[in-house]
TrEMBL record:
<dbReference type="GO" id="GO:0009279">
    <property type="term" value="C:cell outer membrane"/>
</dbReference>
<comment type="similarity">
    <text>Belongs to the TonB-dependent receptor family.</text>
</comment>
<dbReference type="InterPro" id="IPR000531">
    <property type="entry name" value="Beta-barrel_TonB"/>
</dbReference>
<keyword id="KW-0813">Transport</keyword>
<feature type="domain" description="TonB-dependent receptor-like beta-barrel">
    <location>
        <begin position="442"/>
        <end position="958"/>
    </location>
</feature>
<dbReference type="InterPro" id="IPR023996">
    <property type="entry name" value="TonB-dep_OMP_SusC/RagA"/>
</dbReference>
<keyword id="KW-1134">Transmembrane beta strand</keyword>
<dbReference type="Pfam" id="PF07715">
    <property type="entry name" value="Plug"/>
</dbReference>
<dbReference type="InterPro" id="IPR039426">
    <property type="entry name" value="TonB-dep_rcpt-like"/>
</dbReference>
<keyword id="KW-0812">Transmembrane</keyword>
<keyword id="KW-0472">Membrane</keyword>
<keyword id="KW-0675">Receptor</keyword>
<dbReference type="InterPro" id="IPR036942">
    <property type="entry name" value="Beta-barrel_TonB_sf"/>
</dbReference>
<dbReference type="InterPro" id="IPR008969">
    <property type="entry name" value="CarboxyPept-like_regulatory"/>
</dbReference>
<feature type="domain" description="TonB-dependent receptor plug">
    <location>
        <begin position="129"/>
        <end position="235"/>
    </location>
</feature>
<keyword id="KW-0998">Cell outer membrane</keyword>
<keyword id="KW-0798">TonB box</keyword>
């Protein structure tokens, strides 16, 4: 036993000794490393020496990290005296600092927007601001226009030179966005091309404003040409918020806003109308001169007040983001409720966004997946409400003693409809669901060589429900009329491209090559209108209960419910070359193919080239120490416009042209309604751009100046053709040309920066000259295009604008007002120079145009200790507005059946021409608006877990300086009929907002 025991013991000893030795090998180095731990502490501040809480401080190359407390103080144990510390915080440039044996390390972070190495997103890549050789404007989240924002494009209003954005107070109306002037004749084809997180051609309304980190606007042809046939109107690149390394970020942004109409049109009260009529020997019909029930007091109804309200809007955004151990994730929820200041109108939106990313194989492979989803509910009121709140008689009450609305169903004693009844008796609801899913894989194949594959799908579902009840004047005698429409649009996108970057000596080269595939399925749906309901109780919810007379059921055959499939295939390449951080060259080429165009013209090439020279890198500029950066840029690029096209645009189309009897059965007759054009192609825009970027006084003053010459050819329009050669009477063809030339300038400055007070200011200004160069060629002839047929009493066939060669889009053609004759009747100039009281269409004259000569914006931010004050002014100059609304309510001869404006008090009651749309109502559209006044306070909580807590108050549309007499001078500048205020203007609002920004 002893012998055996000794043997086993001897056998086990080496094993035990080995285990002990291995443990020693493990623990001793750990102990040694523990002994080498090095304490570092300090304070992190911003450029104003204000402490920054919540800043991530970590040892470079390790997982050791801490965050600063409420006073910006941190303490971290690093591996040794030679370690490096990485300091990062959202909105500031990251710093990596060597300890060099120090125990105290204080760090000052600089805002990203002040640095030349700001990252700017370009097509299929990114670069630093100092390396840009095109005209690109960047706006970061802190610079966005504030307010009750329904569409993210409104964040840029007044912030980007050359970008004109206009919008009324209607929460459901999309803003008009035009970059560097109108360059097409097709309505709906003037919008820029939107790219969200690298996914091209998606809806801008998919992303919530609070989720946007920055927006880059690509303006010149060299920058946009990489997107080829869809980039002629410019490209807007949206980058959403993503966390930085070792950052966990939770934020809550919210506001509540009260919106009111900013101005009301001056209409007569009931008493004023009665006096005006009495002064002219007139009297109201008894049915139109009502008394308040139970009294003998006359009725004075303020119809604008009856249909308008103070709208309480609210917005909430919760966002959670994190980045740790190669994994990034983010999730946000946004809720916006914007009722609108017209009763019955509203917009409600719920948005969700989620993304997750992972880096694996030593960061050689990056995977990313993101989803956006928004559900928007819109309630609209009939446009008749906006006109009738002005012209409906103020001498009648809203309702009768029996509770019914005061209404003139016969239409012979009152020239209008009760606007309150129009809201109550008509329902128009639209629900829109949008979804975007995007998966991305980026692999580093070799040092400097990466391959990116992006797969995206977008879905849009529209459901529109309209019901005019049995009391609606819009459907008299129909016993209720219902319309239901449902359709889906779908888009699938594949982007596959290589990026290669190589630096050798003073040379740097970047190469891009890729392939793009897109397929759209649009108009997958149907629509139907029916009538004859026994009850209004179910509204539009059960169409089977209708009892329509024969032939009254109508099926929707619009483009929205016409199924089409569109395919786009593209190949693209780009080269960037840089020498000594001094000379820059960029060239790109894109080859696009589209099934929307004629079989002979489905492919097109879009080339671009640009050069840059950073003069401050030259030896002869070294003595100019005040000059931090001076760069000259020159570029030329060609891009296209294919918006608004589908595969049926260039094809022979058949449609209903009437009905006929066959064997006693009434059938629809079908015939050709559109000629085919195998040569139809996209519009092409060639743009030259010359620019100068500068920064002086250590970046405290910076800016740029750009000149551009933008020439668009192959404009698409319907031209009259002979039926001896064609089946139909018109042909869609490429013929016309449009020119836009302009200058843009922007200056950013920090006039004062101290420990407790900072003033930052930014000014941008732009001038554009637009001209329709031609509308005809050797094959097609077109003298002009009459547009803006506004209608109105006796004017249904008249036009107020024309597209004319040599004139800008938006040129007014009006009668020239000469004053009153001896009888007080308005007179006008005839074409031969004589005077008449009965003008004809032959007497229209060019009277000005709606295009502004100058647009500008001026933003100021003042920071004093924890307070921040923002004042933002913007405006336009040199444009005209046609106040057709004032003309329509200037009808003294109708004052017994409709209300008139205070302007009419100066008119003769016998002036039968007072309402005619002439240059008498063409007004100066220039204005200066204090768009935003905001005061905020950042609270120092002393809690390291709360990185930011800011409360603020904000007023939008504070005041407007203008000579325009209408409701508001911000009139839509999009389409072919810009600058017209025409009886359906939804009033501009003034909003008062209280908000909170909190991050943890």
């Amino acid at each position: 036993m002893n012998r055996k025991y000794v043997s086993i013991y001897l056998l086990r000893c080496p094993v035990k000794l080995l285990i002990v030795f291995q443990l020693w090998l493990c623990f001793v180095p750990m102990a040694l490393r523990a002994q080498e731990k090095y304490d570092v502490h300090g304070k992190v501040t911003d450029e104003k020496n204000t402490p920054l809480p919540g800043v991530s401080v970590s040892e470079q190359g390790s997982k050791t990290g801490v965050v600063t407390d409420g006073e910006g103080v941190y303490r971290i144990n690093v591996s040794g005296k030679g370690a490096q510390v990485r300091v990062s915080f959202m909105g500031y440039n990251t710093k990596v600092l060597s300890i060099n044996g120090e125990h105290v390390l204080n760090v000052s972070l600089q805002p990203q927007s002040k640095q030349l190495n700001d990252v700017v997103i370009t097509g299929y890549g990114k670069t630093s601001k100092k390396n840009i050789v095109g005209a690109i404007s960047s706006v970061n989240a802190g610079e966005f226009t504030q307010g009750v924002i329904g569409s993210p494009s409104m964040l840029l209003q007044g912030k980007v030179p050359g970008l004109t954005i206009t919008k009324s107070g209607n929460p459901n109306q999309a803003p008009s966005v035009i970059l560097r002037g109108p360059s097409t004749l097709r309505s709906g084809a003037q919008e820029p091309f939107y790219v969200i997180d690298g996914v091209p051609g998606v809806s801008i309304d998919l992303v919530a404003p609070d989720d946007i980190a920055s927006i880059d606007v690509l303006k010149d042809g060299a920058s946009t040409a990489i997107y080829g046939a869809r980039a002629a109107n410019g490209v807007i690149m949206v980058t959403t918020r993503r966390p930085k390394t070792d950052q966990l970020y939770l934020s809550y942004n919210a506001y509540v806003g009260a919106e009111q109409v900013s101005k009301r049109l001056g209409m007569l009260t009931g008493d004023e109308l009665r006096k005006y009529l009495a002064d002219n020997g007139q009297v109201l019909a008894p049915a139109n001169d009502q008394k308040i029930p139970g009294t003998q007091q006359p009725v004075n109804t303020d119809w604008q007040k009856e249909v308008q309200r103070t709208a309480i809007s609210q917005n909430h955004n919760i966002s959670l983001m994190g980045n740790s151990k190669g994994t990034t994730y983010g999730f946000s929820v946004n809720y916006l409720d914007n009722p609108g200041i017209i009763k019955g109108s509203s917009m409600n939106r719920l948005g969700l966004r989620a993304n997750v990313g992972q880096r694996v194989f030593d960061d050689r492979l990056r995977l990313d997946f993101s989803v956006f989803n928004t559900t928007t509910t819109q309630n609209n009121v009939p446009t008749d409400v906006l006109y009738n709140m002005l012209n409906y008689l103020p001498t009648v009450s809203v309702t009768q003693p029996d509770g019914s609305f005061t209404e003139d169903y016969a239409g012979n004693i009152r020239g209008g409809s009760n606007p309150v009844a129009l809201i109550a008796n008509n329902t128009d609801k639209t629900k829109i669901n949008r979804m975007l899913a995007n998966g991305l894989a980026e692999v580093t194949i070799l040092p400097g060589l990466t391959y990116t594959l992006s797969l995206a799908t977008q879905r849009e579902q529209y459901n529109q429900d309209i019901y005019y009840n049995s009391l609606s004047v819009l459907a008299k005698g129909n016993n209720g009329r219902a319309t239901r429409k449902a359709y889906t649009n779908a888009r699938n996108i594949i982007e596959s491209y290589f990026n290669y970057s190589k630096t050798f000596g003073k040379h740097n080269i970047k190469l891009l090559g890729g392939y793009s595939w897109q397929e759209d399925h649009n108009g997958d749906g149907f629509g139907v209108t029916t009538q004859g309901f026994v009850s209004d109780a179910l509204s539009y919810n059960n169409l089977s209960l209708s009892n329509p007379p024969f032939g009254t059921v109508v099926f929707d055959n619009s483009a929205q419910t016409t199924l089409t499939t569109l395919r786009l295939i593209s190949y693209y390449a780009r080269v960037n070359y840089q020498y000594a951080d001094k000379y820059y060259f960029q060239a790109s080429l894109r080859n696009d193919g589209s099934s929307a165009f004629g079989k002979n013209s489905r492919w097109g090439y879009f080339p671009a080239a640009s050069i840059g020279w950073r003069m401050t890198q030259e030896n002869f500029m070294k003595s100019a120490r005040f000059l931090d950066d001076l760069k000259l840029r020159v570029s030329y690029g060609v891009s296209g416009n294919s918006f608004g096209f589908d595969p049926l645009t260039a094809q022979l189309q058949y449609g209903p042209v009437g009905r006929y009897y066959d064997n006693g059965v009434l059938l629809n007759s079908i015939a050709p309604v559109q000629n085919p054009n195998p040569n139809l192609k996209w519009e092409r825009t060639g743009m030259f751009n010359g620019g100068l970027d500068f920064a002086i006084l250590k970046g405290r003053i910076s800016g740029s100046v750009d000149y551009y010459d933008k020439q668009t050819s192959d404009l698409i329009w319907q031209y009259p053709v002979s039926t001896t050669q064609f089946i139909a009477t018109t042909l869609i063809a490429n013929v016309g040309k449009i020119s836009n030339k302009g200058i843009e300038a922007v200056i950013n400055a920090e006039p004062f920066s101290g420990k407790n007070f900072t003033w930052r200011t930014s000014v941008n200004v732009a001038h554009n000259t637009n001209k329709v160069s031609s509308l005809a060629n050797d094959q097609f002839t077109l003298k002009d295009i009459p547009v803006a047929i506004l209608g109105g009493k006796g004017q249904s066939g008249n036009w107020s604008q024309k597209v004319i060669e040599g004139q800008p889009v938006g040129t007014f053609t009006l009668w020239h007002y000469l004053g009153k004759d001896k009888d007080g009747i308005s007179t006008y100039q005839k074409a031969d120079g004589t005077t008449t009281t009965s003008p004809s269409s032959a007497d229209f004259m060019i009277a000005g145009n709606a295009q502004p000569k100058i647009t500008y914006g001026w933003n100021n931010t003042f920071i004093w200790k924890g307070f921040d004050l923002t004042l933002f002014l913007r405006g336009v100059s040199g444009n005209k507005i046609l106040n057709a609304t004032l003309a329509a309510v200037n009808t003294p001869t109708d004052a017994k059946v409709t209300n008139v404006s205070k302007f009419t008090l100066q008119e003769s009651y016998n002036d039968k021409n007072s309402y005619l749309v002439s240059d008498r109502f063409l007004e100066n559209g220039s204005y200066l608006r204090l768009e935003n006044l905001a005061l905020g306070y950042t609270i120092k909580t002393g809690n390291a877990r709360i990185s930011k807590l800011r409360v603020y108050g904000n007023v939008n549309n504070v005041f407007t300086i203008t000579k325009y007499t209408g409701i508001d001078p911000e009139i839509d500048l999009g389409g072919l009929t810009p600058g017209i205020d025409v009886r359906n203007y939804y009033p501009k609002t003034r909003s008062f907002i209280l908000g909170l920004n909190a991050s943890f």
